[in-house]
Amino acid sequence: MSSSRPPRSLRKRQPAKLADDIDFDLETLLKEHEKDGEVKRANRDAKKMKTANNEEDDKYADAFKGYDIPFDTLPALCIERVFAMLDSPQDLFNLAFSSKFLMSLVTPETVIRSAVFNNLRKRDKGNRKTMSNIIGYINNRSIHIPSAHRMLRLLNAKSCERGDRCWGMNLNTGKAMSLHCSSTSRPFGLALCDKCVKFGTTKVPYSHFSRFQQGVAFHQWNLLMDPQRDPNTDEMKGPLLEVLKLEQIENTYANNDDKKSALEGIVQKALANAGKYCAVHYEETAAAYNEMYENAEKEADDHVAAALEEDQQKYRERREERIAKRMTRIRTIYASLEEILDDCPLKDLALDCTWLENDERCVKFSCHIVEQKLNNIISAPASASERSINNAATDIKQIFNTLNDKNFFQFSYIESSNNRFKKGIYEYCTNETTSLEIMCSSMAGDVHFMQALDDDKPVKALVRALNRMRGALPRIFALSVLSSNNQDAAADDADNRVNDFRKLAEVVWNKKAPHQYGSEIMSFNTIKETFNSSNIEFQTMKENAMEYLRDDQTRRFLLRDVGVAGRENFSRQDAINQVFQPKTHTVW
Length: 588
Hints:
This protein is mainly α. 53% of the residues lie in helices and 2% in strands. The chain has helices at residues 26-48, 55-59, 76-85, 89-96, 100-103, 108-116, 126-139, 148-155, 194-199, 243-252, 256-273, 279-340, 347-350, 368-373, 375-379, 386-405, 420-432, 435-439, 447-454, 458-467, 472-481, 498-512, 524-550, 552-559, 572-576, and strands at 202-203, 223-224, 228-229, 236-237, 353-355, 363-365. Strands 1-2 form a two-stranded antiparallel ribbon. The protein has a two-stranded antiparallel ribbon with strand order 3-4. A two-stranded antiparallel ribbon has the order 5-6. A hairpin with a 7-residue loop joins strand 5 (353-355) and strand 6. It is flat.
């Protein structure tokens, strides 16, 4: 027990030992400590203050340090300016009702602007809709004009204002029914719950004379309510007229003009007896409220439009900068492709493209297979590596070298064919399309296309590419069944209309092969079956059309001088030519 160490609290504190050669000065130590304290206090105060954004703010950052002024001791004009800057009715309510002096400085214009400008950037128009609903009743001159304080209470109302008279009041808590959180309607200029609207109002028929009359407050087109009196302020609120008076007018007079005259008299009497404004003052005040609201709405809309325009301008600038960077990188990639494909005979065909200056895509290659091979590189040019560019360029070069080695675009492999369909393909490929249009096909250059070329089946590869060229197969069919070398100047007019009959042949093909551009391409067997059935139907239609054109009645119809009734720019020859444009029906 005696050998154990004493506890820390009982140990004797040893005096500090100072070196003999140190000249210890207490005053210097205190001054250094005070300097450290000043630095720490300055850093603490700097954290409390807002950081200055520019040199001008930095100049006056410490101007009012430690100088506090009570808000309600400011001049009234300054406080009104502060109120005007508040864009939240809730903030204005909390601030204004904190003292009687601040309450006296609240104006109707301040309340209206706070509602209209609330949450403009977030497109939250709840308070604006509520104010619009109140102003609508005021414009109709149908309610007692609310004061600035009452309008502020209406905007911030959370529960029914009828209190003990509320139809939805909870007897246990003694609280009136809460308003719906999304409700922006103030029926009759009152903050009413749904049950008070349902059970505390009078429903009149839609044929009631006062539904569209000035001075009558309606809700949901056919609900009326009596005026209310605020028990705290003794201020009249809600509708100007009692439902009883309106019903008495409805029952007394039969003529609408008499009803309107009686209504005007009751409105004047209501303003004189119960209102705080005379008729002239009421009209001036209502007009002033409406002007305040319209001015605030115009200013708010202009502010939103200017903010949107500014955002759009910034977006356009960022987009143009982004496109410029992408374009620079893509042109570098294009130069690399040109260098790799320099010795390719079909280089111009492979690299044919359209530069899109104002599009984030920047470039669109004409050949579908090239667009497909470079899709990942063009979509993210900044992250494209040299290796990926070289691999894509090598694949493209191999495809077009194969096309050149096989003499694919010379079409010599079908030039001397006796097959009518192949003759049509040869005529179409040599006279009516180009190699670029063929390579624009989504099937040109794919795996099956290249496999057919490797197996020395160029016709199969060509037909695969033509499958995805819109209008190619119908035109080939038309060229196959009707040759252009049969024209004879001495022949009948019906025999020389080759182009018209070819259009008719295209209609027949499209009728027989309606799903030729679907996900599945047409096989050789399908093409053969479609060709045979279309040819039979076309020959029948051709004979009928020629017989129709040679008929004497048709020729006499063309020689008549009477115009086609009701059809401008439509000749008799146009009417005859309708035989080459039959409507597509299930049965011809």
